[in-house]
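User: My collaborator sent over this chain with a note saying "see what the structure looks like." That's all I know about it. Can you take a look?
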Amino acid sequence: MWFFFLIPGKTAKRAAVSCLVLLTTTVSAAPGLEAGKHTISLHEAVTRTIEHNPHLRAFDYQLKAQEGRVMQAGRAPSPELSLELEDVLGTGAHRGMDSAQTTLSIGWVLEHGIRQRHIDAARAGSSLFSVEADIKQLDAAAETARRYLVSLAYQARRVNADKTVQLAEETTDTVRKRVKAGKTPEAELSRALAELARRKLQREDIEHELLSANRRLAAQWGETTPDFARVEGDIISRPHLTSFETLKSRVQQNPEFARLLSDQRLKKAELQLAQAQNRASWQVNAGVRHIASSNDMAFVTGITIPFGKHARNPGRIAEASADLEKTNLHEKAMQIYIETTLYVMYEKLQHALHVIDALRDEIIPPLEQALSETRRAYNLGRYSYLELRSVQAELLDAHNALIESSVDARRSIIEIERLTGVSIAQATSNP
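Assistant: Without extra context I'll predict from the sequence alone. Here is the result:
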């Protein structure tokens, strides 16, 4: 049985972790796989990916960098300390330092709310980074599910290849007996032996592909040597599906929409910051003055007002406004794209399931019956080796087609769940 579903949740590292999880019943180990070695489930594979994937761990530092930006945005401009000397080193009464006036003052900028706008923009950027982290984790989980499916498919192909080799061996033994009895030409045994050799080569090829697939799967969590020999699952089982209309109604749960909403908040904060910076900041200062000639002290204060046009940031405001409008339009375009892609993927899935049903219920059973009858007729000398080989090939092709259609169906399920962010399949047993 197969369960495909998406789980939004939290991890200790960051909030809102989304991952594809596939729970499967355990099936017996494929012949030739080393007994006793670790068997991995997709749940375990996804968990390892989220915790140890090198690309996800590298993104942690980008999040920390953004946290630093938020911290920096909240810091006020440092006050400026100013020291001025007047009426010194001149002529007459102002020679030397006798008439010096020393002014020590401190000045600071009046921000007019600009600091809060910086904080808002930095926080909006953090929100966008958080959504990006969720999407990266979901992408990594989906890629793990794809690679897991490849390993599972090669396991099924290997089981099928073992059955093919066994069938070729049985056929070779039958032909050999007929040759010894003088009922069949020696050439048929040669053909049967050649067919057996071809089937063994095909099985060996699948074994190498399975080892490579397991290595690529383990690479998702940063390992170069897999600690498992097989993955769990029955690829032939047929799931019950959620209806297309139900999926369409949940399109808004796609994580890309969360990214757009966060981007909208960021663009709005940037627009407000540009508007706040449109007016030049004033600077005030205050301090004390020492008059050397009379040894008196006096309090001084002042204000600095920049000259120029009142609107100092029109280009930046226009840019931020356009960026905000562009983001709003992207949301509509994204919805159209997702709904269209969802429909295409769902139709592809429906076709794959139809092929599975036809192969399993209408094609394979009569071919198995035909093979049984053809083998019996061959043993009686009524059919030739060519006729026996033809029926065997048709049955083997049907079994291979069943596996490939099942792989196509599972792949479509993974992509649809990645697209919608919701589960579309429930378990069902083989009839």
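A starting point for your reply to your collaborator: The chain has two domains: 2-74+114-275+333-426, 77-110+279-312.
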